[in-house]
Amino acid sequence: MFFSAAILRAAGPDTAGFRDSAHHWRNINQPERIMQAQPNQPAYAPGQVREIAENLLLFQRANGGWPKDYDMLAVLTEEQKKQIRDTRANEDTSYDNHTTHPQVDYLARAFVATGEAAYREACGRGLEFMLASQYPNGGIPQWWPKGGTIAKRITFNDGVMMGVLNVLKDAADGAPHFAWLAPAQRARCVEAVARGTACLLKMQIKDAAGPTGWGQQHDEQTLETVGARTFELPCVSPADTVEVVRFFMRHATPSPGMLRAADAAVAWLAKARLTGIRVERVPAPPAEFFRHKADFDVVVVPDPKAPPLWARTYEPGTNRPIFASRDGVKVYSLAEVDRERRTGSGWYVTTPERLVSRDYPAWRAKVK
Question: Could you tell me if 249 and 108 lie in one domain?
Fold first, then answer.
């Protein structure tokens, strides 16, 4: 969505892109972080654009990217600021949990709102980081430049590939907040979007009936759907499929290949819809796990009047919802997952409903 400079100056750029990492910093136990949140640590209001942008500059690593799982809106102590400055050379840069691409987008908008040259320069370095991280085949890894097996995979989960491609497309299209971009850098963004789009078309998962959707992670060489963490199995992912289709819908003149892929994906989403059930949180004895605490459990209950749901992951070839605990054993119902993962991951999603029932049919009717 584009915003005028006047609107940005009045309300500030949208900060929603930072919520995922902020949640992890404030609520998820990660003792390996270089800087920990304090209890009830205050945060800047969305309208405090300069304060937030200065945080982004502070957190930006020397290579142009950002580390994941910190709150960009946090009012930091002097000691916390020192911990970030002292680790500026670290190559812990990532796109995981909606990191780096929201910072690049925000800085572009902050520059438009304030005219502060430092924000433009930092945004440009972030764009260069994103362009450099893209594989020759067009895919985007979870972490770059370092990372293990999972971090090297082409990743859709947690907003990685589609988040990067959407920001690059804004830059390539000359969106108002990227009007300042130099022609040469804009041309590189155009090329990166084209390679990424071609990669998306190649990665679409097929079964006996034809193309379906996309997985949470794909092999960076074969492009096949693969597992990630032990409880994240090779799959077709409805939520990530929605994001791919919405990216195709951004194109004023989508190619025939994009239209075929999107048509097939939306048809698969309609087929994968689950009805007659709802997911409910119920009170349970307090429990403390390694990453989180829970005083509740999550159950699936019958409800003929419930709105449609989709499982987080489906088994390729069978279209059965699949689940797993940290032991990596595939099961076919949430009740078979242990409480640690039942309460630590979201196993059902609702995001496909609006796409399938409203947005895609309306868009498709206008596109030849």
Answer: no
Choose the final residue of a domain: 175, 203, 231. Answer: 203
Confidence at residue 4, expressed as pLDDT on a 0 to 100 scale: 47
Do 150 and 266 lie in a common domain?
A: no
Specify whether the CB–CB gap between 265 and 204 falls below 8 A.
yes
Question: What CA–CA distance (Å, rounded) separates 294 from 32?
Answer: 21
Note whether 45 and 164 are same-domain residues.
Answer: yes
Range of the domain at 252: 204-368
- CA nearest to 58, candidates 34, 26, 79, 82: 82
Whole-structure pTM over 0.90, yes or no? yes
Residue with the larger pLDDT of the pair 237 and 10? 237
pLDDT recorded at residue 10:
54
226 pLDDT more than 60? yes
Own/partner contacts of 29-36, CB < 8 Å, gap of 24 or more, are 29/290, 29/291, 29/292, 30/69, 30/291, 33/69, 33/70, 34/67, 34/83, 34/84, 34/87, 34/90, 35/70, 35/80, 35/83, 35/84
Do residue 219 and residue 101 come from a single domain? no
